[in-house]
Amino acid sequence: MHPYADSTLALLTRGYAWAPALRRRHGDAPAVPTRLMGRRAVLLHGPRAVDFFYDERHVLRHGALPGPVLDTLFGRGAVHTLDGGTHRVRKELFTTHLMTPDGVRTLGRLAREHWLRTADGLRGGDAVLFDEMAVALAGAACEWSGVPCAPGADVRRLAEDCVAMVDGFATPGPRHWKARRARSRQEDVLARAVDDVRGDPEASRHGRQPTVLEAVAAHRDADGSLLDPRTAAVELLNVLRPTVAVTWFTTFAAHALHRFPDVREELRDGDDAAARAFAHEVRRCYPFVPFVGGLAARDLRFGAQEVPEGTLVLLDVAGHHRDPGLWSEPHRFDPRRFLGREPGPGELIPQGGGDARTGHRCPGEDVTVHLLATLATTLADMEFAVPEQDLRIPVTRIPTRPRSGMTVRIPARGTDRAAAR
Fold this sequence. Notes:
With 421 residues, the chain is an alpha+beta fold. It has one domain: CATH 1.10.630.10. The chain is built from 14 helices and nine strands. Helix 7 crosses helix 8. The longest helix is centred in the middle third of the chain and has 31 residues.
């Protein structure tokens, strides 16, 4: 019998505060044993924990993610669930063929264009930034990836479904069932798109670079087989969904620009380095992923803590970014801490640690940083007011966001610039 009480209810009710509270009860130990959903678990914290967690000799992903997470967030058979050579071959689809520097820049340009068009249609009234940015990102993702999606209702449906998948993965009840329905609907749509591409007699593309849709449809796994249409749809969603999910970070960016007007002026007058530093600090300071998990590959030891084979191993992500032993004034929003440097692989881990090309760090992290830097600069350059609203960010909700969704008022054309402040 495991000697520690099950923490599942505490996690569901305390959200991001769960891991810090658990660690405090154990004297801020770097490894804390517990149970989740009846399973033996251990919560790890700190730079050594990052190295330990992302070593495949220690922690495996296959079988680690519970069914409800697969059925909402990642999808059955997704790259996140694979290990070893099978994982590396599947991941090459993303790192080599999809997330190229040119592709990232193109997506950033499209996201800016789609947001500016969206914002132009919102002039003269109030709009929820979170919702409208999701639509702009969905439109950009479809145009970039080659996924057929008619402007208007189709794009808005995709945006709403991608948001639902992220919003409902970590909670029981209506949000979770909405997420399941959203994933099922979009997997059906994308599986048909994959079948259409494979059945196209003109699929040679005449020497041009394949679209994301075409690359996924043509990808062969480690055993040489094409992905079945449903798994191909899952991996397409693992491009579209994270792109739309950047709406969380851009909403946090708008929140930061409102709270810290001096930072807004610095960003408005700055360069690419300042924009990237701002993007990094938003990802550090605002909570998104509370922790990541895997399974102990064999009987292990982390410091003084024994970790038996099959134990659920959790890496404390949110606590890592607020640790005063790792960050100077961790609760202070200060993009200058990243000026002139890129954070190390175990330093800033909102999308995982280690090497993105060979390990389980998110291959779309460069996309996220570039999109966030581009859209944050665009927001800093825009004139908009922030009406009275509830901008609190509840730590008990995973994933969290400002309660209001960040309502903004974009002035009509010709309105005096000062009136928008």
